[in-house]
């Protein structure tokens, strides 16, 4: 190594080697995004943020970013009700809509009649298989869920 030539040289840009074929990337670092400031920041945060951005520059973004003042469809504002806000339905119990407690149950949601109808139809179709299902559930290797299903089917048919 005469005169300081030869030997390994560490690359000065981020990627020392490019991948093969479609995995190839630029090894010179390529274009980067410009450094931006954070609006409404507290004193000293801007300096820290700028130093972080300079230490790890982001790759250039080809997709244009919309400006904050650009027109277009905006989401309507959402009224957020805090958890400690007073109730808007003072005469309705907390358990309304649940199968337990006072107030209307699941029927207020319109789900129970359809579920009962489907459950009865399924049970009527499975009734012909009940002897086989009972036999399988009584075998030594039967799972608890199989036994529970047979018990539930018997309860619906009763």
Largest sheet geometry? none
Give the strand content: under 5%
SS-based class: mainly alpha
Instruction: Give me the number of helical elements.
Output: 4
Taking Cα atoms only, what radius of gyration do you get, to the nearest Å?
A: 34 Å
| Low-pLDDT regions | none
Number of strands: 0
Q: Give the overall pLDDT as a whole number.
A: 76
Which series of helices and strands comes N to C? HHHH
Shape: elongated
Report how far the terminal alpha carbons are from each other: 95 Å
- Secondary structure: helix percent: 25-40%
| Assembly level | single chain
Give a short overview.
The protein is mainly α and 158 residues long. Helices cover 30% and strands 0% of the residues.
Task: Describe the 3D structure.
With 158 residues, the chain is an all-alpha fold. 30% of the residues lie in helices and 0% in strands. It has helices spanning 45-55, 112-126, 130-137, 144-157. The radius of gyration is 34 Å and the shape is elongated.
Please outline the helices and strands.
Elements lengths: L44 H11 L56 H15 L3 H8 L6 H14 L1
Helix pairs in contact: 3-4
List keywords for this structure.
158 residues, mainly alpha, 30% helix, elongated
């Amino acid at each position: 190594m005469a005169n300081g030539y030869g030997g390994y040289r560490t690359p000065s840009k981020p990627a020392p080697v490019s991948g093969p074929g479609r995995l190839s990337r630029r090894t010179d670092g390529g274009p980067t995004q410009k450094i931006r400031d954070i609006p409404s920041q507290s004193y000293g945060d801007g300096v820290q943020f700028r130093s972080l951005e300079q230490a790890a520059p982001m790759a250039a973004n080809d997709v244009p970013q919309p400006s904050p003042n650009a027109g277009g469809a905006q989401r309507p504002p959402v009224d957020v009700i805090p958890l400690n806000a007073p109730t808007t339905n003072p005469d309705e119990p907390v358990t309304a809509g649940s199968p337990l407690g006072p107030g209307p149950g699941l029927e207020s949601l319109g789900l129970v009649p359809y579920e009962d109808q489907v459950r009865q139809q399924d049970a009527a179709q499975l009734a012909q298989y009940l002897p086989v299902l009972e036999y399988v559930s009584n075998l030594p290797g039967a799972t608890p869920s199989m036994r529970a299903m047979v018990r539930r089917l018997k309860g619906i048919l009763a």
